[in-house]
Fold this sequence. Notes:
Layout: E1 13-15, E2 35-37, E3 58-60, H1 73-77, H2 86-106, H3 111-121, H4 135-151, E4 154-159, E5 166-167, E6 174-182, E7 193-201, H5 211-219, E8 228-234, E9 238-243, E10 249-254, E11 259-268, E12 275-277, H6 288-298, E13 309-310, H7 316-326, E14 329-338, H8 339-352, E15 356-358, E16 375-381, H9 383-390
Parallel strand pairs: 4-6, 12-13, 12-14
Antiparallel strand pairs: 1-2, 3-11, 4-5, 6-7, 7-8, 8-9, 9-10, 10-11, 14-16, 15-16
Amino acid sequence: MQSSPTIVLPSYLTLAPKSHNIPRKSQSFKPKLPLSVRSIPDHPEMASVAGGFTVKAQMGGSLRREDDGYVTLIEYVGKKEANVGVDLVLLIDHLQYAFKRIAALVASPFNSSLSKQNMALAGGKGEFGRDAPKPLDLLSNEIIFSSLQNSGKVAVMASEEDDAPVWITDDGPYVVVTDPLDGSRNIDASIPTGTIFGIYNRLSEIDHLPSEEKALVNSLQSGNKLLAAGYVLYSSATIFCLSFGVGTHAFTLDHSTGDFILTHHNIKIPRRGQIYSVNDARYFDWPEGLRRYIDTVRQGKGKYPKKYSARYICSLVADLHRTLMYGGVAMNPRDHLRLVYEANPLSFLVEKAGGKGSDGKSRILSLQPVKLHQRLPLFLGSFEDVEELESYGDVQQKVNPGYEV
């Protein structure tokens, strides 16, 4: 086993003592201490906010305050119409703090040096190839864990970066599943990244089981039981998209105040779009049904008589966010994306915005997970687009030669 590396951190990042022991996936980069990013300094209230996106998604009217005209995330979730209890408001507050720290980390000019240290320690390519844990993945995981632990409201955290779920506290009412930093392997090219999470109630009826066992069972709840889910897009803006089961809403981080501001209230994804998002360099590995679907829609011969355009970032949160705004379908036809902490939370958000999440045959939220890191194909987007795609039958890619890019 390799020794833990020494990481050179910028002066505005500090290290906090580690107070937990998480079972890690095998990895060459093993930071012993979680990263602590300095808190955002206080600033005067902003005088104005830039306008929202020009999008096809339908959005309800903005919520207004008389004093400055805008509503923050915590103000919104604290309102009666959000129907969120005090415990969940507190949890969301701790999560938003974690996401601000990750946003600062992602934007740091020192990311490149961290990646180079990890590559050198792994011998160039990396022992686990393109899916090996990256420094920012692991640091983001520590940031989220710390916030959940400090909230006192979470019994279990299940993460892509950990081999097994972690039992945090016996009396926490919630279970959180998360992909702490999706798309981090593209970060050196400044491609957007994101955090994905879902929140469940703790299953109190299994409290008598050993911690390891009840942590796993709590984490393998079907998506139908989600209380809330969200993603955070780290891009030209930091956008926190969230649903508590009634509507999907997006909040944009105002760096002058450190607040997430409600900018997209009650998003409604168009019933049909004109964009498909997939890596079609893999066209010849696809099953016949998926090839026919793509050939048909890009020629304008599908149920929607306009030619579709391709848009593909290769960052799940970014591709999904664009699809939520403009409509269409975002997909990965391989058994690649994780059901528990990627497909379920994102399908929840899409459904609450009027869209559909599918594995090509079945509704994602109706599937029962059997393993924490269970993989599957994923098709997300406009309701009519996903239904049309499913009608072609054979759309799940079973041939997977392995890709080195």
